Amino acid sequence: MRIVDTRETTASIASPISNAYIDFSKMTCSVVAIVTDVVRDGSPVVGYGFSSNGRYAASGILRERILPRLREAPAAALLTDAGDNLDPLRIWDVMMSNEKPGGHGERSVAVGTVDMAVWDAVAKIEGRPLYRVLADRYRGGIADDKVWVYAAGGYYYPGKDHGALQDEMRSYVDRGYHVVKMKIGGASLDEDLRRIDAVLEVVGDGRRLCVDANGRFDLKTAVDYARALKPYDLFWYEEAGDPLDYLLQAELAEHYDGPMATGENLFSHQDARNLLRHGGMRPDRDWLQFDCALSYGLVEYLRTLEMMGELGWSTRRVVPHGGHQMSLNIAAGLHLGGNESYPDVFRPFCGFADGIRVENGYVGLPDAPGIGFETKQELFAVMRKLAE
Length: 388
What we know:
Layout: E1 3-12, E2 28-40, E3 43-50, H1 59-72, H2 88-95, H3 107-126, H4 130-138, E4 147-152, H5 162-174, E5 180-183, H6 189-203, E6 209-212, H7 219-229, E7 236-238, H8 246-253, E8 260-262, H9 269-278, E9 287-288, H10 297-310, H11 325-334, E10 339-341, E11 362-363, H12 377-387
Parallel strand pairs: 4-5, 4-10, 5-6, 6-7, 7-8, 8-9
Antiparallel strand pairs: 1-2, 2-3, 4-11
Helix pairs in contact: 1-3, 2-3, 4-11, 5-6, 7-8, 9-10
C-alpha cells in the first residue's frame, strides 16, 4: 500500500467573538486529506485532519516542507513492517526530517494537522474507530465508552450584555452540559465579577463554572483576580498569564489554592515537561489542556503522556483544548479526564457526531471507522471536497 496523494486547503472559522487577547474576525484553519490506494466499500481510504482554533492556518509550512516530504519519501518509509498500514511514528519522523529542535510555533500545527489525517486513515484501514485502536495499542484494550465534556463559550462580542451571556449559558445547560466556561480579562475586574455573578445565577454553583483569561495577565493582575475568584470555588481558573511564564504560574499557585488549568499553548513534550517541573502545577487538583492538533499530533502527545506519568501525573488530569473529534477519540482511548466542547462557535470545525447528545455532562462516540468525521455532516461536506 502507499499514499497516492496529499491535499490541503485553508478554511475560514472567522466570527465576531473575542477573548482577552485576540479577536477571531480573521481566524483560519488548515484542512488536510491523505489519499491512500487502499479501497474500502469501493472507494479509496482517505484520512482527514484539521488544525485547532486559535492558531491560523499553517499553509506555507504544509506546502513547502511537510507535505513534500511525504510525497518524496519511499513508500516503505511510511508503512508498518508488514506493509499493511501506515505507521504514524515513521511518518512523523519523515515530516520532521531536517528540522532543528525547539522553536515549535506554527510548525507544530502543520505536523499535528497531518498527523490527525494519518491516524484517521490508519483506523479506517483497520476498519475500527480510532479510540478502539488506541485502547488496544496503549491501554490493554480498555476504552472509555463516554467522555466528560464542558461547554466553552462566554466570549466577548459587541453588544453582548449580561442577559445575552446568561441566555448562552442556559442553552448549554439545557443541552446537557454540567460545566460551562466563560472568558475573563477582556473587561475590568469589577465587570468580570459582575459577569461571573450573572452566569452563576444560571448554573447555580461555582463548581459548574470555569473562567479563562487566555494568558492576558501580568503577575499582579493574575493575583488580584485570584483573590477575587477564590470565594466562588470555581471548577478552574485558566491560563492567567503567558503560557511560557512558568514562574508566574508557580507564584500564582501560592495565592490561589483552587484548581487551575493551562497548557493549550504548549506545543511539545519538552514545553509540557517544563510546565510540570517549574510551573507550580499540582497533580491532585490542577488540569492540563495540551491540544494534539496544535502540538505535533498524537505521536508527540503519547510522549507527553508518558512524561507526565514519570512526573507523577495521571492522564485523568488532562482535558484537551480544541473541542474536536480527534481529542475526543484520544480521551476515550487513552483514558484522559475529558474534552473541551464548542457547541456554537468555530463551525463546522466544532462539536461531535450528529445525533449523539450530551447527557449529564458526558458524550458518547460513534462506531464509525476512523475519527468519525463522516458522522458529522456539516464538517464532512467541507472535507470531502479535498478528495474529489
